[in-house]
């Protein structure tokens, strides 16, 4: 974890929860509360907050993954997969040999996903923590995580887990909010994020605080270069990233060789 995300307080190690400081042991519980509260409105809010952009970014992620079109077995794990956007897009683009496993810590988010994915074969939901994935070593052919890793308390541990469950010769891909490339846009983006998004959250999901956390957690997340370094530190090679919409989001990728 980056140093500015943690420091030692009197009551043990502290970390950030949005802009607040909380104990490391309490953080995941607070994150879980956020997602259990917003689950039923999560997809609608994504469309409203991003003006539909999240759909394009997720489509970009799946294109970057280049799903195989053949019947050859190919197993994707989509960690923090929530309501299943990335996994379903992947299965729509992939050949019949492909399967997807969504692993998320929130039962409520996955329940929404299961409702949406009713009747969809080749999609499995498993409840689990990105920091200790309930899967054996070298099980998967690709690992994706979209807008999930900034919610994890120990990013380095989650990346180590990604490495562990991937077969050699396969890839990790992370889609996450990132740092704007254009400084002038920063102010407009800040004004929108800190005012409009919590207000939308209050209006649509009856919950401004959860959306304030989501915005703040974006600002606390390491920038493109730092995050690329963390992926390298986990053992991945040929790490690269591509900015989306001027750096509002970015896709990082790396190979386990
Ligand atoms: N990937 C989905 C998408 O792009 O729409 C959902 C993203 S949502 C912003 C973040 C998800 O991360 C939530 O479903 C939440 O439950 C999950 N999450 C948070 N901490 C997690 C952890 N430690 N392990 C696994 N999932 C986690």
Summarize the entry for a quick read.
Helices cover 44% and strands 26% of the residues.
Q: Can you count the helices?
A: 9
Query: How is the main sheet built?
Result: 7 strands, mixed
Tell me, briefly, the overall form: globular
Total strands: 10
SS-derived structural category: alpha/beta
Proportion of strand residues:
25-35%
Unreliable segments of 5+ consecutive residues: 1-11
Oligomer: single chain
Bound compounds, each kind once, are: S-adenosylmethionine
Order of adjacent strands in the largest pleated sheet: 6-5-4-7-8-10-9
Mean pLDDT: 92
Query: Helical content, roughly?
Result: 40-55%
Order of helices and strands: EEEHHHEHEHEEHEHHHEE
Provide the gyration radius in Å.
Answer: 17 Å
Termini gap:
23 Å
What does this structure look like?
There is one protein chain. By secondary structure, the protein is of the alpha/beta class. Residues about 1-10 have low confidence and may be disordered. β7, α6 and β8 (about 165-175) form a beta-alpha-beta unit. The protein is about 45% helix and about 25% strand. It contains nine helices and ten strands. α1 (about 25-40) packs across α8 (about 210-220) and α7 (about 185-205) runs antiparallel to α8 (about 210-220). It starts with 5 loop residues before the first strand and ends with a strand. The strands form two sheets. A seven-stranded mixed sheet has the order 6-5-4-7-8-10-9, with helices on both faces. The chain has a three-stranded antiparallel sheet with strand order 1-2-3. The structure holds S-adenosylmethionine. S-adenosylmethionine (SAM) binds near residues 82, 106 and 109.
